[in-house]
Amino acid sequence: MMDAYLWQVPALILAGTVAGFLNILAGGGSLLTLPLLIFMGLPAATANGTNRIAIFCQNIFAITGFRKKGVFPIRLALLCTPPALIGSYLGANLAITVDEETFRRLLALIMLGVLVFITLDPARKLRQQKVSMTPWRLAFLMISFFGVGVYGGFVQAGVGFLIITALLIHGLDLVNINAVKVLVIFAFTMVALAVFIRHGQIDYGLGLALAAGNSLGGWVGTHVAVTRGHDWIKRFVSLTVLVFALKLLFF
To answer: What is the reported pTM?
Structure first.
């Protein structure tokens, strides 16, 4: 076991750094780390649970980074979080039996849908004015984030793209969206992680190594997100979505 850790730990730190950067700016970092954990010999459910340690730690650093940069939309995050917590608990309990092939295809289609949405950018005009939170808009937001929580609790990979889509509809720019995203994911990851811990589906050694990389990548990602702004993130997200969608569909 110790001999394996000699190469596994550096590999996970490196992969985690890239994944953390991707997760903050766009999403899909778990599409890199989950297959790597499985390649290292972990069962799919244990890899899924172990990956949550890294996501949890990554978002602690990301929240701190956004807050220091003055980007901290806490009111909107508090609206989105409760339904996501409920959904995450349900999704994590379903995650013990994951039909991997079906989710690969569904996730690819979701990503392509996000790519179309980001390219067309129908919320562009809304970002020029303050969007009021009407009862219908609030209801849609709550339902959307319940679905986000179910998906995030179940498989995690790509959940950032779903959050971006849900919040673009409300006229936010991608800097504020990424700040809300890390707050919500941090909250529902605690719930999902507790479920995996209860079922014994965690490798703590590999999880902490991955967490070190994810945390570094998340910290760097927050600074890039704030300094580069909406248009740069839009191009980065679009490229990331396209690459991961093609990977899921054809590789």
So the answer is: 0.77
CA dist 154 and 88 (Å) reads 7
Q: What is the model's pLDDT at position 227?
A: 75
Question: Which sign, positive or negative, has the C-alpha torsion 77, 166, 30, 99?
Answer: positive
Identify which has the larger pLDDT, 78 or 236: 78
The values of phi and psi at residue 40, to 5°, are -80, 0
Structure tokens at 36: 């790597």
Q: What are all long-range contacts of 65-69, with beta carbons under 8 Å and residues at least 24 apart? A: 65/218, 65/219, 65/221, 65/222, 65/223, 65/226, 66/178, 66/179, 66/182, 66/222, 66/225, 66/226, 69/222, 69/223, 69/226
Sign of the dihedral defined by the CA atoms of residues 166, 169, 170, 171, in that order: positive
Residue at token pair 């709550």: 142
